[in-house]
Each structure stands twice: as C-alpha cells, then as structure tokens.
Amino acid sequence: MALAQQRDAAAARIPRMSAGVDPTALSLTPAEGYLLSRIDGRTSWRDLREIGGVGPEEVDRCLERWLADGIVEVEGGQRPPRALVQSATSAPPSRSPAAPAVASAPGPNGSPSLAIDTALDLPVALQEKLIGLTARLAAPYHEILGVPADADRKALKRAYFALSREFHPDRYFRKQLGAFQQPLERVFRKIVEAYELLSDPTARAEIERSLAAATPASPSAATPETAGTEERPEAAPTAPRAPRRPHVFAFTERVRKDRKLRAKRLFESAMSAFAAERWLEAAAGVRLAIAFDPWNAVYKEQFADVQQKAHAESARKLVREAENALDLRDYPTALRAFEEAIPYRPGDVSLLRRAAHLAVQTGGDLHQAKEWALEAVELEPRDADCHRLLGQVYQAAGLAANARRELELALQLDPENDEIRAELREVSGGSSPLRWLGGKR
Amino acid sequence: MSRVIGIDLGTTNSCVAVVDNGQPVVIPNTGGYKTTPSMFALADDGKRLVGHLAKRQAITNACNTVYASKRLIGRRFDSAEVRRASELCPYSITEGPNGDPRILLGDKTFTCPEIAAIILREMKRVAQEYLGESVREAVITVPAHFNDAQRQSTKDAGKIAGLEVLRIINEPTAAALAYGFGRKNTEETVLVYDLGGGTFDVSILEMGEGVLEVLATAGDTFLGGEDFDRLLVNYLLEQFEASEGIDLRAEPMALQRLKDGAEKAKCDLSGATQTEVNLPFIATAADGPRHLSVIVTREVLERLAAEIVDRTMATVGLCLADAGLSADQIDQVILVGGQSRMPLVQERVAEFFGKRPHKGVNPDEVVAIGAAIQAESLLDENQNMLLLDVTPLSLGIGTYGGHSAKLIERNTTLPVRRAHVFTTTRDNQTAVKIRVLQGESDLAEENDLLGEFILSGIREARKGEPEVEVSFDIDTNGIVSVSARDLSTGREQSITVNATGTLSDDEIQRIIDENDLYEIQVKD
User: Fold this and answer.
1) Cβ proximity of B418 and A232 under 8 Å
2) Which one of A94, A420, B105, B295 is least enclosed by Cβ atoms within 10 Å?
3) Burial letters for B456-495: b for 16+ Cβ neighbours within 10 Å, e otherwise?
4) What does the pLDDT look like over B4-61, one tens digit per residue?
5) Distance between CA B235 and CA A306 in Å, rounded?
6) Closest Cα of chain B to A377: distance in Å?
7) pLDDT number for residue A24
8) Which residue of chain A has the CA closest to B423?
9) How far apart are CA A260 and CA B281, in angstroms?
10) Using the beta-carbon criterion (under 8 Å), do B386 and A294 form an inter-chain contact?
11) Which range has the worst mean pLDDT, A211-220, A229-238, B389-398?
C-alpha cells in the first residue's frame, strides 16, 4: 500500500493517522483541518508540504506537533513503523481518516466544524447522535446498525428500517440542516452499506473473517479497506476488501503485451486440439484466448467454427446420455441431458419434442416444457404433432383454454387423428383448476 | 402552505391526486373523468386543445394531434425507439438542435418536454379548480426504467408548466406506496406489475413499519398497451386488405379510426369474449364506399398478444432473480396500468405466482395516489411513509477499448455516492476525458451516454502518479451529478453532465416565456 520511497528519507516519511484517534475530538483551525484531511497514509511529508493551501513551515509545525501528541505517526522513514496492532472494533482504520475528518473537521472549503446548533430544524438529540455517529463511521458494520454480530436477516432489516426512519434525508426534506446536511447523508449511506453487506452472505462471511483476524494481525490485515470509505466502489458486496487501486484508463503496454502473449499460447494449443478433433478442449482454449485478448479478430473468427464443432459434439454426447438414461428408466437424468443438449442444437424439432414430452410424462418443469413445445410449434407450424404436444403441456398445466386451442389446431392439420380428437374431448369436458382465472366460459 | 399534488404523467392517460385530510383523493376533471388523455392538438384555427378535447378531434386532425409523446421524451432523435415511433405516428417528428426529437404541428415545432408540460399544466388546472387554490408544487411519476435524460426532461417539463417538482418517483414504487398506505403494520414482500400505455415495469418491494424498500426493479420502456393496439390495428388492416383488396396504411385518418377502434375492441375483450369493430366509410373504391366490419375474438387478441405478455413475464423473472427471491416468496402481486386488466395478463401472472393478483387497487389511479402520498410524506412532520428507492440502471464510465466500467450497480439504494480514483496513462498528461454511461452492457456503445466531460488541470507528472478522485452521485430523484477532485492539489471541479438530448436552461426559459405569452393570449 505504501509507496516505496528512497533517497530523501526524512521528507519521504509518510504520516498516517494513529489508531484510535477521533479527529472530532481535536480542536483545529480550518487550515489544520484541511491538512489533517490530506493525511491518507499515502501522501508523503514532502508532498503534504507542496499541496498548497497551507505553507510548508505550517505543515512542518503541525505535523511535528501531531506527531508529538500521538495523533499522527509516520512510516517509511528512519522511524520504523510501529506495529499497527489495531482492533477494528475500536479504532478507525489507519488509512481512512478522510471520512470522519472531512465530516467533522473543516474541509478545504472552510466549512464550520460540527457543533450543536439550536437554530437548525434538527432536534438537538439527533444532532448529538449524528456527531457521535460521524466519528464512528469506521466501526464494524453490525455496530453501525446497532445489532449483535450474529444478528439474523430479520433483525438486520428491522434495525435498517428503524435507522432509515431516523436518518433518511427525506425525513428532513426542506429543513434547515446547516453543517449537518452532509454528515446526515454520510451516515445514511453508511447505514445502507452496512445493511447491504451484512445481508449478503458472501460479503458477511468475509467481514466476519477479517474482524476475527483484525485483533492480532499485521497492519495490512488490520486495515479494513472499506471502513470509512463507504463511497469507494470496492465496498461493493462482491469484493468488499479488494485493495484500493487507482483506476487506470487503459491497460498499460506491458500488461497488454503479456496478455497478448498468453492469448497466443492458448490459441495455439487450442488449434492443435482442434486438429486432433478434440473439439471441447479446442473451444475452451479459444474462449480463454479471447478473454485474454478481446481485440483479436482472428480468434473471434475461429471461435465460431470451433464452437460449432464443440456444440455438435456436446449435443451428441448429451443425447446419447439421455438415451442411455431412458433405457434405464432414469427419467430425471434423461430430461436433464435433453435440456442441456437443446441449446447446442438450435432448431432441432425432434429434440425439443422429446424433451417436452418427457417433461409432461414425468411431471417435470411445465414452464420449460411449454417453452420447448412453443419453439417446436414455431419451427414446424404445420405439424399437427407439435401443436398436439403444446396442447398436452397446457393441459398438464391446467390451462384448458390454451390446450383446447392447440388441440383444435392439431386436429385441423390432421383431421383423421382420433387420438387428438379424444384428447380434445377430454379437455373440453374436464374442469380446469384455474378456471376462475381467465373468466373463460 | 399551498397543497402539493401527485401527477401520474402517463403515455396514454394522466391522472392527478392530492391528500385531503389524510386521505388520498383522485381529482376528476371538468368532464367528471378521473383520467385525462395525454393528448395535445393544434387545431386549424391555431387553438391549443388538451386531453379529452384533443382526443375527440383526433380523427379529423390526425397530423396535428400528438399522443404517446412520452415514448419520445429524453431520447435521441437517431435512436431506434424514435425511428420506430415515427413510423407509427401520424404526426411528424424532426430533429432538434440538441439531437432531440421534436414534433412538428402546423408550422411550429414543439420539444417533448414542452408537450409534456402542456399535459402537466392541464393536470395542474384540474387540481386548482377542484381545490379552489393555486398549486405550485408537485410530485411527478416516471417509469422505473427511465434513464437520467428521461427523468431530467420530465423535470424540465414540470418547470415549464410552472410547477416545482419536489420529487420524481417511479410509477411502480408509487403504486406500492398507495398499497402500503394504511397497511403500516404489515410486513410483506410485494411485486408490482405495471403494464401501462407505453412502458412496462416490475418492482419488488419489502415493506414494514411504514418503510418501503425497493429490492429490485426491471422493465422495458418501449412496451405497453399501445403495442397491443398496434398488433390489433395490423390485424384489422390485414383483414380489410384480404376482403376488400385495399391497403389503408397510407391513410392517416383511416389509421386513426382503426387505432380508436382497436383500442375500444381491446378494452371490450377484457370483459366479453368477442366484439365487433365497425368502421363505416373507411375507404372509397371506384364503385363506392367501403366499410370495415370485423369480428375480433378474445382468442385472436390473445394469440396476437401472447408474445408481448411472455416478454413481460420474462422481465418478471429477471427482477425476481435480481432481488434474489423465488416466485413463492412474493406475498402480494399488485397489477397496475390499464393494460393489466387484460385477462391473459392476469392469467399468466396467476400461473406464474400460483396465486391471484391483488384486486384492491384501481390500476389507472393508484400511481397518482402514490405520488400524492409521497408528496405528503415529504412535507408532513408526522410522515406516514418512507421510501427507500433504487437506481434502475447501472452507472459506469467508458474505458479504453470501448468498454464500460460499472461504478454503481443497478438496484443500489438511493441516494448514493461513489468515488473512484483515476490516474493518467501517459507522462505529463494533464487532461482526461470521462464518458458517463448508463445501462447494463459491458460495451460502451450499447449503453446510454449521459454525457462526457474533460477533467483538466491535472498536475504534470509521470504516468500513474496523479490521483483524481471522481465522485458520482445519484439523488433521490434518480438524477446523476459528477464532481472531481485532484487529490494532490485539492482542486475541485464540479461537472454538469448535460445529457445529450435534453434542453439547456436558456431553452427552458425561452419556452416558459413563450408559453406565458400564450397563456395571457387565451385569457383575453
């Protein structure tokens, strides 16, 4: 995380917030507040002096004082970094003073610091709560929501709704909120973040793991990247702890070359698999090559061919598997194999019919069966058997009117077929469980 | 304090409501109707006609009567949707200076927000007459799937109509608010199926203790009742051509009559199993006049419409997947929008969820009621309902190679802000161009371009060293704003993402001035 610095070691020292410091508790001038808000554990002492807004001497004076007071600590210089043993439960993460600092200390625009203001349309009790909460934005998520660490989904939701009722900006629509405007939004967003992450089992497991690891671990493990940076995309549930990296506009040349090389190797081995008629392996190889080098037109062109072969191969295998299963009367397996084969053989009416028929016969998924039968009908609109099959699906689903329509169509196409006639009679006479729905008479 | 109204600005019909003594009421117009057609016409004598008046004369003045303009608002002239609409509509659509579609009536072109403003002004007038006091503020609803430009244009329309728009809310969410009103203590998961005149939305919400949280929303901004009409019109055209050998497609007046006939037949078929479309003297042949008389059965309509209804059910499935729920976890299904009256829709919904949809709401009025409730909830101290809505579309930025990097995923709770740190790719690069995109595709060109801006004044340094933090905000109206800060200099830059296809402030002011002139004119 820290940039490796060389040469001028003293100036290259990187100040960072000490663990457990509550910036709101400090008394700062706007300039000092600005400087403090710049300390992000990445900007060196030298850079801080050059930032502007605060003179270099002033920067030195402030930093020396904060260093002496233990508010700030440095690493990367002669002073070896103290092992940052933090408990994430009590300490704000070392690298994210920004959230509380910006909210509470005067920001670059010189906004006043957060203090109770009775002139606002905001109850004093709530102002106090907000001051407390803004200072604790880096606390573990369950504490933000005020629930025990093992709270279930229902408890989470209750807490979330209750907090929303209190802190949602809509509650204070058109109210004079003064300096509390931003902190209120910040707090609400944090509440949302906490609720969303804790409701997501994957993210929650991750959070619990790092909370457990935070106590005795190394500085890096004790730096919950997301805490206090609720506005950073890595707080997204999928990767709650991905390291924060500057977003680069383009792949750098080196990375791109590397990727291209890998793609080329993959493609070559895929082509030799293709030559050996190992279609599936070839398709997987080309797909990977494209993933590594999405700009290569040759790969894409080849992919169509390879994929076609691979699909045919997959379909052949699956149909064989289905037929074997049918012989063994293992209908669920057969149905699954047919289902998997269908996308590999688009337009294969007989496959669609076999699958739909099997689904109806064995009480499979009728929605799916309907899709298959519909597709068959679309492909062969003049085929009585296709319409009949669709009718059978509808009948199995209890949709009598639809069933009748299809069976009538089937009979029109094949007037001699007595079986269809019998089925049609059955549909017309029998009562449908969903009869009340359509208002059909 | 003057009252705040809720307006459902629909594709085919609009509706206005207000909360009166704690009870939401739908306000009838002077004709006694609770909904007003979203139609506007310029008569031969230059008179402006709105609502029922416009609809009544639509047949004789087809080219100068605007309907369904909501399908165009906030879109680009060269978009597929606008192209499709111009093929279907009798009025002519031209390209405006911002690349926005404009409507040509007589010798005057109207912007889409202007047309919407005329409808909104009418709804405002209806409310003012009912309340006996002037109305200045409103909550307006839009389809959940409206993007930033469409929302922004709707807000502009409110401004042109002389309304301060307190909030733009999503139609299905409004419907859920109306449903949840008075059910504060029930904890339920509800799904709103909103099939209106021109758009289709699905939203899934969790409610309890007066809070409504939107879990997911999905939809299609170009699918609705009008499509059912169109299919039926085509069917009638084919029938007529088969029996009489005359193609009516090039006859605007005949088309307008067919459209009215189809719409009426469609509504009839919700109750009856067959109906007759009877349009005498629809055409003239060498040997005399021709009449159109076609029997349409419900079966025919259902066969024509089955594909569209299936499309809506696929969207329902998508929304459920987004919410991480299965069909049996939905406690209530609420049907909204006039088209949801169709038996086939109810049948498919019931089939899908294994239960009957909720019957307690009026599908035409519930959205306006929800808007009124939201207005009241914002302003009243003892607020009743709190809405936790989401953004329906992902927000991203264009990256190298024509890709889109998502910064805010769809279905994220609003308001939301995400900051992202950017750096340069060349040494001493001082400016970068950022393209803000809205949509779900990984390819930039398949998303809507909200706008682009140049971030300049980056300090000269080796590539990868400067750090510029760009913050993306979506407010509770669903409207996007962007700001940037150079982390090393602290320099801030606020950026207006002027969506391509929306109006500039100057233009809005010009339209307001023109319309004010016009208002004085009529009163004389």
Assistant:
1) yes
2) B295
3) eebeebebeebbbbbbbbbbbbbbbbbbbbbbbbeeebeb
4) 999 999 999 999 999 988 899 999 998 889 999 999 999 888 888 999 989 888 888 8
5) 44
6) 13
7) 60
8) A248
9) 70
10) no
11) A229-238
Size of interface A-B (CB pairs under 8 A): 125
Within 10 angstroms of residue A78's Cβ, the number of other Cβ atoms is 8
Query: How far is CA A334 from each of CA A363, A390, B350, rounded to the nearest angstrom?
Result: 13, 20, 30
What does the alpha-carbon distance between residue B6 and residue B385 come to, in Å, rounded to a whole number?
Answer: 15
Reduced DSSP (H G I as helix, E B as strand, rest coil) percent helix, strand, coil of chain B, to 5: 35, 30, 35
Q: Which of A43, A170, A244 faces B378 most closely, judged by CB atoms?
A: A170
Q: Which residues of A touch B476 (CB under 8 A)?
A: 169-170
pLDDT of residue B59: 80
Among B122, B148, B194, B448, the one annotated catalytic: B194
Cβ pair B471:A231 closer than 8 A: yes
pLDDT tens digits for range B95-138: 988 888 999 998 889 999 999 999 999 999 999 999 999 999 99
- Amino acid at residue number B153: S
Go through chain B and tell me how many residues it has: 524
Quote the distance between the C-alpha of residue A176 and its chain's center: 36
The per-residue DSSP string of B328-360 comes to GG-SEEEEESGGGGSHHHHHHHHHHHTSPPB-S
B81 is catalytic: no
Chain B nearest-CA residue for A400: B347
* Active-site residue flag, B156: no
**CA nearest B417 in A: which residue?**
A231
Q: Is B521 helix (H, G, I), strand (E, B) or coil?
A: helix
For residue A44, the number of C-alpha atoms closer than 13 Å in the C-beta half-sphere is: 17
Mean pLDDT of B370-374: 95
User: For chain A, what's the residue count?
Assistant: 441
Structure tokens, B330 = 């939905």
Q: Is B266 a catalytic residue?
A: no
Q: What is the pLDDT of residue A8?
A: 52
Is the bond preceding B415 in cis, omega lying within 30 degrees of 0? yes
Which 3 state secondary structure label does DSSP give B410?
coil
Between strands B288-297 and B164-170, the pairing is unpaired
**Cβ of B420 and A165 within 8 Å?**
no
Please give the pLDDT value at position A74: 76
| Known catalytic residue at B194 | yes
Q: What is the pTM of this model?
A: 0.65
**ipTM summary value:** 0.83
Please tell me chain A's helix, strand, coil percentages from 3-state DSSP, rounded to the nearest 5. Answer: 60, 0, 35
Question: Which tokens sit at A369?
Answer: 């069966």
pLDDT surpassing 70 at residue A402: yes
